[in-house]
Design a protein that fits this description.
- It is globular and about 80 Å long.
- The protein is α+β, with helices and mostly antiparallel strands.
- Helices cover 29% and strands 22% of the residues.
- The strands form seven sheets. It has a seven-stranded mixed sheet with strand order 9-10-7-17-14-15-16, sandwiched between helices. It has a five-stranded mixed sheet with strand order 12-20-19-18-13, with helices on both faces. The protein has a four-stranded mixed sheet with strand order 21-22-23-26.
- The chain has 18 helices and 26 strands.
């Protein structure tokens, strides 16, 4: 009998869009099963977890599952791999599809054996009864799955799970650890040419003129490609393509872009904006009990994806058909925008996913795909690989938006929050392909017949974007939350892991600590006083217990702090405790995180995601910021955009709270905001001084100390 949780999972959006059972799996005669998902592997281990879900519902060994890389010609269209939704979307759809497939296979096995269903013994796809046997592999054919996925097949109970909930080795890691070719940057197709695109080293600038006379005769150069302001080169060897790109950049005359604002956070607050109240709750009686009020402002800078491997793509045009290999997170959306930019029909384009460096958001992968396609038009049927350079990535890929936040709260005589106000200013957090009338692809804006560059947008709540996690999960009698959306962008912006949740949780949880200090109450006790959600309380208490919060021994320059959130207020719960030492720089020595993702599919995978998110958030919080100069983005290399070193990475401990009776949710973005807040609160505890502007660099700390003395 289905549980209440299972009933809520019926007919996920992925099945509404892709209803045919044959779109999801194929059973082979050799005893393997191909599983098709529209979600892509970007280093988060999703294909391993989806294989576990499929194996569990089919009742076969996970080793029999073949996860087919996402391909617009083969895979169900599941939109974009983002928002920590892959388990919720693709996982639930696969669960339904595989449960029905197992039912159909057993019905056919029963007919083949001439027995009743209750007499069957089934083990790893082998079916036995009355001394006879058959198998799923013998029973399957193409016609069996040529039907819509129904909702009547019984799902396996979590009590009977053998694969789900157990650690499973990541399928993508052996090649990566051994250094075997796996990434798109490693691909070398027969006859492949190497391409580079010539762009100025500053965002939003354009081409005025180009003198290519000296470069044309360069040995090994196959072609110089120009379409309006788009300029690229093709060469037989990659080093020749790089040399030609650099020479043409120097030979070009560039139109300067408008200089960015000197103080982007002041600019955001003063610039034209669309104002929207996203949460409002009035309680005049509660507000009348206020005895003290506190206000604070916080900022987050522009952030780069800063992938170790810059964006890359391969394209080939043959007989009017375009094939593209890309590490895009949304291959169907990309296909749509490629068709718009190139003036082609969508059915003439196939986009195939190939793994690239993890980015967890909208970086330059989609742009590189159009670059490769434009150059492939001049390659006479040969495949073309386009690899961005480091300065291309920093200057031209979308950034995570800068944000400014102002908070105000009132306390009653007992230290309870009776009123809460939260305002945020930000550009939009998504300019992904497939969401506007014009292609959201860089080269499309510079062609001889250019397309309009769309503004970054915000998705509506409950998922949200800039306002993601801006509505507090705490129980306040009065509250007001306002989002000020600034459409004009000083730099190109789009989705970066956790979107607005990183800044909103940092601000909310920092402010909760400031209010706790004003009220004279322990930060954890203060949070629990204002939180009714039992799952939220459980992760806070679990993190505090694991960190031995009550046994902390004060020492000069050392501090600990906590941060908490439920991602998007409807996903994973996460509480983080940070232990820091503040000397010349802030060093995070230990991070303890407690996490509730409902049903845990792969414990090792969830822990990996939380560890990775916490370490990335540590890097953002302590070091990362896109620097702006008179010509635009000024941080074009690792010297100007430092990230956390291996030697600086903290010890990370993760406490998992498994709730097999509840739906599984994603873990990929749960740690970002809580980790930042925990670190900021720990620094304030160590210094007795509050830092409200990210990142928490030595220069900012020194300036704050100087101002306080």
């Amino acid at each position: 009998m289905n549980t209440v949780a299972e009933t809520r999972l019926k007919r996920p959006a992925s099945l509404e869009k892709n209803p045919r059972l044959s779109q999801w799996l194929h059973v082979h005669r050799d005893g393997t099963v191909s599983i098709y998902s529209g979600k892509v592997e970007i280093g988060q281990g999703i294909l391993t977890a989806l294989a576990q879900i499929a194996a569990e519902e089919l009742g076969i060994a996970v080793e029999r599952i073949r996860m087919v890389p996402a391909d617009t010609a083969l895979s169900p269209d599941e939109g974009v791999t983002s928002g920590s939704l892959s388990i919720q979307d693709s996982g639930v759809a696969l669960r339904r599809a595989c449960a029905q497939a197992r039912t159909l296979l057993l019905e056919r096995a029963t007919a083949r054996l001439g027995v009743s269903g209750g007499d069957l013994r089934v083990e790893d796809g082998s079916v036995h009864a009355a001394g006879r046997s058959t198998s799923f592999w013998e029973c399957a054919d193409d016609a069996l799955f040529d039907r819509d996925v129904e909702e009547t097949a019984a799902l396996r109970s979590p009590r009977d799970y053998r694969v789900v909930g157990k650690p499973a080795p990541r399928r993508d890691l052996p090649d990566k650890i051994a250094g075997r070719p796996r990434f798109i940057q490693d691909m070398a197709l027969p006859g492949m040419l190497y391409g580079r695109v010539v762009r100025p080293p500053h965002n939003f600038a354009g081409l005025i003129s180009l003198d290519d006379s000296k470069v044309k005769s360069m040995p090994g150069l196959a072609a110089i490609v120009r379409d309006g302001g788009f300029v690229g080169v093709l060469a037989e060897r990659e080093d020749v393509a790089i040399s030609a790109q650099r020479a043409l950049r120097l030979a070009a005359s560039w139109r300067e872009a408008d200089p960015p604002p000197r103080d982007v956070h002041t600019w955001l607050k003063e610039h034209a904006a669309e104002h929207r109240v996203i949460s409002e709750k009035e309680n005049a009686d509660a507000r009348s009990r206020a005895t003290r009020a506190l206000e604070a402002s916080y900022t987050k800078p522009f952030l780069s994806h800063a992938s170790i491997g810059p964006s890359c793509a391969i394209a080939q045009i043959d007989d009017g058909k375009l094939a593209v290999w890309t590490h895009s997170q949304g291959i169907f959306n990309l296909r749509r925008d490629l068709a718009l930019a190139l003036g082609m029909r969508e059915d003439a384009i196939v986009v195939r996913h190939a793994e690239g460096a993890g980015c967890y958001g909208h970086n330059g992968a989609d742009d590189a795909a159009l670059d490769a396609a434009l150059l492939a038009r001049a390659a006479r049927g040969r495949p073309v690989q386009v690899q961005w350079m480091r300065d291309d990535e920093f200057a031209w890929a979308p950034c995570g938006p800068a944000m400014a936040l102002s908070l105000r709260a009132a306390l009653d005589a007992h230290g309870g929050i009776v009123d809460w106000e939260h305002e945020l200013w930000s550009n939009g957090h998504s300019s992904r392909p497939g969401r506007a009338d014009d292609p959201a692809l860089l080269a499309a804006w510079h062609l001889a017949r250019p397309h309009k560059r769309p503004s970054a947008i915000n998705m509506p709540l409950p998922a949200g974007a800039a306002d993601r996690n801006a509505v507090p999960i705490y129980d306040f009698p009065s509250q007001r939350v306002v989002n000020h959306y600034v459409r004009e962008m000083p730099v190109r912006t789009s989705a970066l892991r956790s979107l607005g949740a990183y800044a909103n949780v940092f601000a909310i949880e920092s402010f909760m600590d400031e209010l706790a200090q004003t009220a004279g109450i322990d930060p954890i006790a203060f949070r629990l006083r204002h939180l009714k959600d039992p799952r939220g309380r459980a992760v806070i208490e679990a993190a505090a217990w694991r960190a031995e919060w009550d046994r902390w021994k004060p020492a000069e320059g050392r501090g600990h702090g906590i941060g908490f959130a439920r991602y998007k207020n409807l996903g994973a719960y996460c509480a983080a405790v940070a232990e820091v030492e503040v000397g010349h720089d802030v060093r995070v020595e230990r991070l303890i995180l407690a996490v509730d993702v409902g049903l845990v599919i792969n414990p090792d995978g969830v822990i990996n995601q939380i560890e990775g998110g916490a370490i990335q958030s540590t890097s953002w919080t302590l070091k990362e910021q896109v620097k702006l100069g008179a010509r635009g983005i000024a941080s074009l290399g690792w010297e100007d955009y430092p990230i956390l070193k291996f030697s600086e990475a903290p010890v990370v401990e993760v406490e998992l709270i498994d709730r097999p009776e509840l739906p599984a949710v994603g873990a990929g973005e749960a740690a970002q905001g809580p980790t930042a807040a925990a670190i900021a609160n720990a620094v304030a505890h160590a210094l007795g001084l509050r830092m409200r502007d990210l990142p928490l660099t030595h220069e900012r700390i020194a300036a704050a100390i100087s101002q306080s003395t």
